[in-house]
Design brief:
With about 160 residues, the protein is an alpha+beta fold. Helices cover about 25% and strands about 35% of the residues. It is globular.
């Protein structure tokens, strides 16, 4: 039986990481949306972008490849895309609105802060079990590594 409680505080079902990136928000947004495969999952894992249609309702389909041949397909839709500020996606439905087992809603936000960019990535879960599963999968270390990889790309002088 699920312990889903619609009245539960959002904080109890959300995991989040944040990092200050020493680069302008426009550069960070550009890397986020145009170079996703370079930062999306912790190395040595890699990301294959099948499709990213950067608009609300657009398809978001990636394949994550592990160093030992692991393969994890992830298909869903963008729920919101606010250019230069925020995007959100879910795996609860495919682009043709076919329901599938939901795991989370991912929300990625950037904002100007101290001459750089505050990056915040959050995962909102439907149940406490899903949140716990995500924590046990290594959410904190994995999403921090991803934030560091994003920062490394953004902070390079090109």
């Amino acid at each position: 039986m699920s312990d889903h409680n619609p009245k539960a505080s959002l904080d109890t079902l959300e995991l989040s990481v944040t990092r200050l990136i020493a680069a302008a928000p426009d550069k960070v947004w550009s890397v986020i949306t145009q170079r996703t495969a370079e930062w999306w999952c912790p190395k040595p894992w890699t990301t294959e972008i099948i499709e990213q249609d950067w608009r609300a309702g657009g398809r978001n389909y990636t394949i994550i490849h592990g160093p030992d041949g692991e393969r994890h397909e992830g298909e869903g839709v963008f729920l919101e895309v606010i250019d230069g500020k925020r995007f959100a996606f879910t795996d609860a439905v495919t682009a043709d609105l076919k329901p599938q087992s939901p795991f989370m809603i991912g929300i990625f936000e950037i904002a100007l802060e101290d001459g750089g960019t505050r990056y915040t990535a959050s995962a909102r879960h439907w149940t406490a079990e899903a949140k716990k599963q995500h924590e046990e999968m290594g959410f904190a270390d994995g999403w921090k590594a991803v934030a560091d990889q994003l920062a490394e790309i953004c902070e390079k002088q090109e």
